[in-house]
């Protein structure tokens, strides 16, 4: 069904949406660079008032709890509420939910105070947020369960779009499920691959407001995975080379090449 | 007039000045690496007492508000005041001034409490700080006005050197204006290009205390832009390759090559 | 004696230990990427409760004071104490000890409240922590003294393993000293080379609990230095290229190649 996603990448590059990221210290630079490579316009904030104002002019907001502390939680909540008022999409990345009670509690607080458009996490994180059984190691998911069912259950329970990333990415709304089949194992050898995808999804949503959000999220995940495959075609010796080939691919991969190489399947009804 | 700037790069490499950076989370690593590649010695600080002590032994201090919050504002003010006492140059990068009232107010507070040697920003930021008309999108400048006049007005109003970066860099004191004509559009596709330039300017100032500061700032901006052109000669496929070719160029570009390729013009009297 | 270290790298790659890093903002991304390239599993934390919980499931904890402020000091102490309870190794990197009284005091507080397994720093930092004479410039060591004697004295005084990095790395316990002779000057042109080594040492310790800790620390330092030499074999034009070749080398350098190229000598009794 990838043909239906055609045009969504070019929308990002034409509209260059302003994306506000309240994100973790590990990936903050990579996030800015990923969005710039893609053609979007990143902005970051560390102060509640600053974030509230910026959310009013942004096209979308990404919230990520990877190195959360109290002051950032306040900033994050302000950003989310302000985005809700402005009617722009809010994507939540619950990094390490389930790994500690501090993180799990923070996610619950965010979900209760901010209307989230899309939740993006690995299997373990999504399972933790929705009390499903799964395996975690630190902030990495090591579960081997049925990821499609996991995503479907989560989307239904939370009544939002859920993107579970891993070997395959599963994108599920309460009523429909799509699966992207591209990518490379090398993505697990660089930090922040999932985190940056959260921001890329936000940019796609901001630039494609007229389209079906589940298809927009799928377009973002599919484009991202195909870009990773393009990076592997340059034969990196390791994750150092790969990271920068990947960033180049976010910049130079065309809509046509992506659509040609991307594989997206329907995951059945929920 | 580029011949007059000759020798200023070698001074940095010989003296290896210690530069303290109170900067934003997005660019903090890139700043350290940019200064190391250039041959300077970076140090960072996140605590007021720590920053106050370090400013006493540094050759220059860079202040950047890109991810400002309250604790960092305190650190930044301490660093600036301590640098003033030590008589070393202080460069201010007002990232996103004009984008939010929080940032604009912070810049005003800094300008009122710390004697700034050089203000470096894009057109929108400099316009916001000096109440001139311009266009902003998030923290990016999208104005199309007369950047030379903008810089001249700002330098006169603030009575300091102002560096407005963009397609051309305009460096203006209250009495003289210089323009660098090098660079590449690819610099807009990596984060932190302007922020790191602020630290490079600080390093040039620290190592060239006997020279005319407007010429020293121009040397820094010109060298930086020529290094970016050198990086483009290696034909990067995108911003990933470019960023590291650029860092290599900061390391390997010689004084002679820079002077040969650099174009600097006088911008007329203020 | 390098043959005695054989197998320690493969242990890291097989066990993929979870390493918690409470580290500075400059190197936090590079630390995550270095550990992932090596084959370990990084996790970061910025909140005391979060850190306390994570330390209970981690294989080792790295503490680094490079951009310390009050909230992080609290997190760092919680992480250390929790690691002590869990009986896992704790490595301390006293970045800039001696450069400011704030840093020196923080290190003393940490040493008094947390049982540290390994202290890793440059000569100036180790000298500052142990009140020995040495030279500092900002957070960089510029002393020219007898680094072997410095390490021996520090290990004896603190009753722990001390790793002094520089042109040679000297690893000393209270009763034995080892020296690694590999490496490249280019490591001084990228930020965080020493900081990431602290995390690599932590990963080696976590994966080799049955082995003699001084030999494990030496294996980590030796592997890291040989990886840097491998990166130089790809002829980087500067520190930009080098950093990513080095990360690739952490990923692809085999146990056999490392052992073949590594040079480790005994440093005499203490």
Please name the defining characteristics of this protein.
homotrimer, 270 residues, alpha/beta, UDP-N-acetylmuramoyl-L-alanine:D-glutamate ligase, nine-stranded mixed beta sheet, 11 helices, 16% strand, globular, magnesium ion binding (chains A, B, C), hydroxyethylthiazole kinase activity (chains A, B, C), ATP-binding (chains A, B, C)
| Architecture (CATH level 2) name of chain A | 3-Layer(aba) Sandwich
Query: How large a portion of the residues of chain A is in β-strands, by DSSP E?
Result: 15-25%
Quaternary assembly: homotrimer
Count of DSSP strands of chain A: 11
Count of helical segments of chain A?
A: 11
In spatial order, strands of the major sheet of chain A run: 2-1-3-4-5-8-9-10-11
In this structure, how is the largest beta sheet of chain A organized?
A: 9 strands, mixed
Radius of gyration of chain A: 17 Å
Work out the count of structural domains of chain A: 1
Structural class of chain A: alpha/beta
Q: In CATH's first tier, which class of chain A applies? A: Alpha Beta
Biggest interface pair, counts: A-B, 34 and 36 residues
Provide the helix percentage of chain A.
40-55%
Mean pLDDT of chain A: 95
Q: What pattern of helices and strands is seen along the backbone of chain A?
A: HEHEHEHEHEHEEHEEEHHHHE
Overall spatial form of chain A: globular
């Amino acid at each position: 069904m990838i043909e239906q996603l055609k045009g969504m990448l070019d929308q990002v590059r034409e509209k260059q949406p302003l994306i506000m990221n309240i994100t973790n210290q590990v990936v903050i630079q990579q996030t800015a660079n990923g969005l710039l490579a893609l053609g979007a316009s990143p902005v970051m904030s560390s102060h509640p008032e600053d974030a509230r104002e910026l959310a009013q002019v942004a096209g979308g907001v990404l919230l990520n709890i990877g190195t959360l502390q109290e002051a950032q939680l306040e900033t994050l909540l302000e950003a989310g509420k302000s985005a809700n008022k402005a009617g722009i999409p809010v994507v939540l990345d619950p990094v390490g939910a389930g790994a500690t009670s501090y993180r799990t509690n923070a996610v619950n607080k965010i979900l209760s105070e901010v209307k989230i458009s899309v939740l993006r996490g690995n299997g373990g994180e999504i399972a933790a947020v929705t009390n499903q059984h799964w395996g975690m190691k630190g902030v990495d998911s090591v579960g081997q369960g049925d990821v499609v069912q996991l995503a479907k259950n989560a989307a239904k329970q939370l009544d939002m779009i859920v993107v579970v990333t891993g070997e395959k990415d599963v994108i599920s709304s309460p009523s429909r499920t799509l699966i992207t089949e591209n990518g490379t194992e090398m993505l697990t050898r660089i930090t922040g691959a999932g985190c940056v995808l959260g921001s890329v999804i936000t940019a796609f949503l901001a630039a494609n407001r007229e389209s079906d959000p589940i298809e927009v999220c799928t377009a973002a995940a599919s484009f991202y995975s195909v870009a990773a495959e393009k990076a592997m075609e340059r034969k990196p010796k390791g994750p150092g080379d790969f990271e920068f080939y990947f960033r180049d691919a976010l910049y130079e991969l065309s809509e046509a090449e992506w659509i040609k190489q991307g594989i997206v399947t329907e995951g059945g009804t929920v």
